[in-house]
Amino acid sequence: MEFLKSLGIEGINPGTSTGCRHFESKESISSFTPSDGKKIATVGTTTREQYEHVVAEAEKAFKVWREMPAPQRGDIVRQIGEKLREYKEPLGKLVTYEMGKIYQEGLGEVQEMIDICDFAVGQSRMLYGKTMHSERPQHRMYEQWHPLGIVGIISAFNFPVAVWSWNAMIAAVCGNVMIWKGSEKTPLCGVAVQKIVAKVLKENNLPEGIFNLVTGDREVGEWMTEDHRIPLISATGSTRMGREVGKTVASRLGKTILELGGNNAIIISENADIEMAIRATVFGAVGTCGQRCTSTRRLIIHESVYDQVKERLMNIYENITIGDPLDEDTLVGPMIDEGAVENMQKALEAIKEQGGEVIYGGEVLDEDGFYVRPALAEVENDYDIVQQETFAPILYLIKYETQEEAMVMHNGVKQGLSSSMFTLNMREAEKFLSAAGSDCGIANINIGTSGAEIGGAFGGEKETGGGRESGSDAWKAYMRRQTNTINWGDSLPLAQGIDFDV
Length: 502
Known about the structure:
By secondary structure, this protein is an alpha/beta fold. It contains 15 helices and 24 strands.
């Protein structure tokens, strides 16, 4: 396919690189498109020897990169953004072809990369510290921020390029260098992005070890999490994975940014704009075939509008186009692989066993690829299966009477990523956003749970991990804080008025 060639993707691709320097490997993994299950290409996996070389190159590059003024680092990120604009269409197609999200979402993911580059360029001139009044005369006290060193990024299949950029672009302007391990389910996306970034490094005669790529299974990720030379690990994935990463990195007193599971709910009030709520719900529930961490999983509906909402959803679900994600008319593409389809089927069986009812969809479609029909189910919030995050297009419908009851159900799960309420009542909205309201890291009024903008800090609470990426002051997670005091006088007064004459 032409878009693969334009990105430099070949039949056999190296999966380990420092800038433009690639390393061949005898071992490899194959990438398959979920649209028809066919093999796309192979990617070499990183050996332990290659990993050690990558870390050594990253350490060397850091000594150069950290000395560049932050605005100059920002200009390199600006150039990366320009290169991504140039390759937006083919890279968007690759995301769609290898991951399975529809083409519009693939383009949107690359646009997120471009947007975060733009954001990071501005951030490069705003790495602010504070000045403070010293209690000692003729002293100046302030704080400043320094880069950490190597930032390890472990990303998931569902956003195979955007989440890397959220971390890498901010970390880069802060003066760090990066080692990226993408998902073994979408390795070609990592190869393509690395090639794009390497062009910018080469054009600016920069060290190759600023942006690095490693490829492989869980073992490669474990090398990173156990490595004391990598002070920060940013990992996106399941809560189970996050527990392991958090425990391992904490044991060496390293830092983590963890973006883990979501069990996101929308509350639809009797005071809602129902049509607006329905549109947001469908996009959140079936977009990316339910495989976003911000996908809408639970719909908590006021009893007075429950039947109306249910009927509208049934009608819309019956007309959703499912098929080839590169087809512009498709709204729902395939799931990532056979294992994901099987997990969905197990969840649907659990719904029935626990007393719920699947009222629409859930079938596996008899086509090449991993296609399913998005499902609607009537359940109670306390069912075990509803308490879990199933990475699939299953939307749970739950009825409520009062806002207090809705909030108890809304917050009554272990995850805490994204949340929404649809209401035109100011008091309901403000209560949802108050300290007594949503316990999630993201809380919205009259927009859905998916589609976060890069200007705000992204992340969640509880078992979602508590990390923050992208906008606001998330840059601080990629830096170390240093407090400085300068004595510009000719005496040595001590703090707290201590008298210590020698």
